[in-house]
Amino acid sequence: MGAPKYVLLSYDREAEFEGEEGYEETWALCEDVTDLFADPPPPARETYELLGCAPEGALRQALAHARATGSAPLGELTLEILDRTGAAVGEWYLEDVRVLGDRPSNRDLTLRDVTIEGTEPDNTPYDDPTCPPMSPGYRLAGPEGAPYGTCRALARTHEPADDPMEPPARLLGCTPRGALKAALDSGEEDLGHAKLLRVDSAGRPVQAAAEGELRAWIPSARGPGTVDLTLDLWSERPPLAAPEVWEQWDEGRPTTPNRWARCGTEGRRFWLRTALDNHEHGRPDRPPGTTYHLDGRHVTDLPGFFCALGETVNGPGGYFGWGLDALNDCLLGRWGAAPPFTLVWHDSEVARRCLGVTPHAVRRPPAFEELLAFLSERDRVDVRLA
């Protein structure tokens, strides 16, 4: 049997929520897994009707374009939910909106019923943005509150399809311990809830991999006394890029810089999650006025910038944000560097050529100059290009 790559722990969701310590018991050491990794499916695009719409601004322009060409891009769309007095009581969002057409409204021929297609973001606050009784409907807005008009009702043209069934994860070559071993020995069918951790070659935890319910077991072909376990997952699966990142952390936290540069964009994005999970909280910041040197040779995408910045501030495998919002939090202090500080960005021309050049309909990554402007806001970071 090879060295275990995973540790299976007992899991108690309530104890974890309450912040209890010491409730986890090691149930098994596992040599490997199958059917664990999967990238999330692309966001489902749905078709909606803005009923009784009085379009304004960019929405009116997109309608004119759609009538001439069949459809037109609109981008982000916010529907402000109005109460009976016309005051906003909530918001609902769509991304990457495309206007497909319009027709006269059945209820009021001066208004239009507008057909749009879009994607609900993961953080949308409402599954169904129903207006309260006696409401006049919705106020429509674009980025930064740009007025797009109003509509009286929203209709979804069809219900979204159910998510496809995913296979359970199989934990291979597991050596049972503790309560799990006792349950297997006694023929217990209800094996309980469990958490799976990826560990390095020395058995030190690297990152939580999954949570779920143990459903079944069979003797394993990987050695006497070992079993293969079936884990039905209820947590998000690690992405397909996770194994290449975990291999780079197999000897523990990296001690040499730029190990992340061997990964593609998705691997770099997962590297940032791993770096955050391994960030050592509670260490004092280096004082304001410190100068940091960023190695920009491999900053060919936005995740690469944050990987390089994390290492610049906190050493190989370090973390200092994985997006602009997270970077803003780090710049408040207590993440390794107290602002203001100086950042000498070496080989910055690599990023200038690469950042923000891929077109995106929604939420385009910041271009090089936009990133510099963000860093320099309120004189937090003095960026010097080298």
What is this structure's SSE topology?
Blueprint (H helix, E strand, L loop, with lengths): L5 E5 L2 H5 L8 E9 L10 E11 L1 H13 L2 E11 L5 E17 L7 E8 L18 E4 L5 E5 L1 E4 L12 E8 L1 H9 L6 E7 L5 E15 L7 E7 L8 H7 L16 H13 L13 E5 L6 H13 L9 H7 L10 E6 L1 H7 L13 H9 L4 E5 L1
Parallel strand pairs: 14-15, 15-16
Antiparallel strand pairs: 1-2, 1-11, 2-10, 3-6, 3-8, 3-9, 4-5, 4-7, 5-6, 7-8, 10-13, 11-12, 12-13
Helix pairs in contact: 4-5, 5-6
Mean pLDDT: 92
What is the count of β-strands?
Answer: 16
User: What kind of sheet is the major sheet?
Assistant: 6 strands, antiparallel, barrel
**CATH fold annotation of the largest domain:** Barnase, Chain D
Strand order across the largest sheet: 1-2-10-13-12-11
Describe this structure in words.
The chain is an alpha+beta fold and 386 residues long. It has 3 domains: 6-40 and 166-237; 45-156; 243-385, Barnase, Chain D, CATH 3.30.370.10. It contains 9 helices and 16 strands. It has helices at 13-17, 57-69, 178-186, 242-248, 265-277, 302-314, 324-330, 348-354, 368-376, and strands at residues 6-10, 26-34, 45-55, 72-82, 88-104, 112-119, 138-141, 147-151, 153-156, 169-176, 193-199, 205-219, 227-233, 291-295, 341-346, 381-385. A hairpin with a 5-residue loop joins strand 4 (72-82) and strand 5. Helix 4 (242-248) packs across helix 5 (265-277). It is globular. The mean pLDDT is 92.
Q: Quick gist of this model?
A:
This protein is an alpha+beta fold and 386 residues long. The protein has nine helices and 16 strands.
Provide the descriptors you would attach to this structure in a database record.
386 residues, alpha+beta, Barnase, Chain D, 3 domains, 6-stranded antiparallel barrel, 16 strands
